[in-house]
Structure formats: structure tokens, C-alpha cells
Amino acid sequence: AGGRDVGAVRGERGPGRGGLVLGGQPERSFRRMNGDGRRRKRSAGGALTRRDALHRVGLGGLEHAPEEAAWDDALDALACAWTALRWLRGEAEVLGGEFDETNTPMRIVC
Q1: Quick one: DSSP state of residue 2?
Q2: How many CB atoms lie within 10 A of CB 23?
Q3: Cβ of 9: how many Cβ atoms within 10 Å?
Q4: Which residue from 44, 54, 80, 95 has the least number of CB within 10 angstroms?
Q5: Rounded distance, CA 11 to CA 20, Å?
Q6: Is 52 buried (19+), middle (13-18) or exposed (0-12) by CB count in 10 A?
Q7: pLDDT tens for residues 63-106?
Q8: What is the rounded CA–CA span in Å between residue 94 and residue 82?
Q9: How far is CA 24 from CA 12, 48, 85, 86, 107, in A?
Q10: Which DSSP string corresponds to 3-40?
Q11: Are 19 and 13 in contact (CB under 8 A)?
Q12: CA of 78: how far to CAs of 24, 40, 52, 103, in Å?
């Protein structure tokens, strides 16, 4: 949302219209794919490890990323897409679950 607070964006939609908002963490998603993911994401080896992990789960297409997209950002976006697919299939791991002051669940999905 362009750096805006998610709560503010949800509130703009009106009461009961906020919809589901999930928080993803690409590093955790890559760990789920690789069983590791601890190589530096901006290193050549780290980028290749992440690219290979994405190919193993059927995601690719980095050549179609916008010209201004950095490699690590494009790889992170694909990892979040993988996590969203896992959520839809009921396969995602959910970390956390506490509620904030607005009764919104605070959780990370990977």
C-alpha cells in the first residue's frame, strides 16, 4: 500500500469490509522450500539458491519482472506468491496468532 499502514488501508474500506490480510516473510518461505535459506539473499549464490528453489516448486518467470525490479525483490515476490498458493490450498504454516488492539490477528504465513 505504498508504505501506508495496513490498518489504515483496511479502515478506508469501511466497517466489516477490511477483508483478509496475511503477512508473509520471504526468508521463512525460502527456508520452507530449501530446508535452509540462510545464504545472503543479495549474494550471487543466495540468488541462485532462491531461483532454484522457486523452480522446484514450479515458479519462475523472472525474465518478465519489471526492468526496475531488483533481483532480490523479484525473488521475494515469487516466494510470497508461493506462500499465497500454500494458504489457498490449506498447506501454509501459520506463526503467531495473537490479536492486536483492534482485534486483528497478528500472524506470519509461510
Answers
A1: T
A2: 15
A3: 13
A4: 44
A5: 12
A6: exposed
A7: 899 999 998 999 999 999 999 999 999 999 998 888 888 777 78
A8: 14
A9: 22, 21, 12, 11, 9
A10: T--HHHHHHHT-TT------EE-HHHHHHHHHS---S-
A11: yes
A12: 11, 17, 12, 30
Fill in the amino acid letter for 41: K
Amino acid at 95: L
DSSP state of 106: E
Which DSSP symbol is given to 48?
A: H
Cell 523452480, residue located: 55
DSSP string, 49-105: HHHHHHHHTT---GGGS-TT--HHHHHHHHHHHHHHHHHHHT---EEEEEE-TTS-E
